[in-house]
Amino acid sequence: MSITIKTAEEIEKMRVAGRLTAEVLDYIKPFVKPGVSTDALDKLCHDLMVDVQNSIPAPLNYAPPGHKPYPKSICSSINHQVCHGVPSVDKKLKNGDVVNLDITVIKDGWHGDSSRMFYVGEPSILARRLTEITYECMWKGIAAVRPGVHLGVVGAAIQKHAESNGYSVVREFCGHGIGRGFHEEPQVLHYGKASEGPILEPGMTFTIEPMINAGRRDIRVLGDGWTVVTKDHSLSTQWEHTILVTGTGYEVLTLSAECPPPPAFITG
């Protein structure tokens, strides 16, 4: 499958999908507190997407080859869960938890994809630091995006920042092209060499979504067939944005006023 270059009209549609994705994450933030079940968060997000935005939650019933259909509208991954955590009535948030909520909206046939970390009450020093470094990793990858360079610059920047801070990068999952399809080419690795991968061109759209572990990078999949956890039970955190390659650099399509501000190395 080849990498699709989006037209100006298609990019506008992706901007709308990205804005709606960020809107869901903005909306859910006040509800992320101790005692709330991840199923309740899923229902709130689902109702906003379907009833207010008139959009479609892309994860619901998503079934790639070898997987049973995903049963919920969002992913909620807590503490040592790396990604694809399935919301549950029985899973209630506790003070000190950190949780990643991953939202993908389909609007008029186009996808927007983003995830954020949320603190439940007061996190530990380790959880806060890992969350902050992972956020910086995502932005290191974003900042490397510009036309004419290899896609590998993204993964190289992320890996260097994570490992220099004593953390590890999950290898089994990566960012991905996005547009009419939920997962398109190219695969966006969060590790590797800057000289590898396709050359970036204006009009490419893809996600950057590093999963960074406090311990070893090894993972395993739970019996539900979806939830991925760290093998050593260490904390794992993730951030994600959808990115457009522009003529001079990049545009983040899933930003909002409620997003945490970019790190100083971006704004400065």
Keywords:
268 residues; alpha+beta; Creatine Amidinohydrolase; 4-stranded antiparallel β-sheet; 3-stranded antiparallel β-sheet
Entry summary:
By secondary structure, the protein is an alpha+beta fold. The chain has helices spanning 8-28, 38-52, 125-143, 152-164, 264-267; strands at 56-57, 75-78, 81-83, 98-107, 110-119, 168-169, 175-177, 184-188, 205-208, 211-213, 219-221, 228-230, 236-238, 241-245, 250-252. Strands 1, 2, 4 and 5 form a 4-stranded antiparallel sheet that branches.
Q: What does this protein look like?
A:
- By secondary structure, this protein is an alpha+beta fold.
- The chain has one domain (8-267): Creatine Amidinohydrolase.
- It has 5 helices and 15 strands.
- It has helices spanning 8-28, 38-52, 125-143, 152-164, 264-267; strands spanning 56-57, 75-78, 81-83, 98-107, 110-119, 168-169, 175-177, 184-188, 205-208, 211-213, 219-221, 228-230, 236-238, 241-245, 250-252.
- Strand 11 (219-221) and strand 12 (228-230) form a beta hairpin.
- Helix 1 (8-28) packs across helix 2 (38-52) and helix 3 packs antiparallel against helix 4 (152-164).
- The longest helix is centred in the first third of the chain and has 21 residues, at 8-28.
Low-confidence residue ranges = none
CATH architectural arrangement: Alpha-Beta Complex
Q: What is the average of the pLDDT values?
A: 97
DSSP strand count: 15
What is the CATH domain class? Alpha Beta
Please name the CATH topology. Creatine Amidinohydrolase
Total discrete domains: 1
Number of continuous helical runs: 5
Class computed from helices, strands and strand pairing: alpha+beta
Radius of gyration: 17 Å
CATH homologous superfamily - what is it?
Answer: Creatinase/methionine aminopeptidase superfamily
Tell me the distance between the termini.
Answer: 38 Å
Strand content: 15-25%
The portion of residues assigned to helices is 25-40%
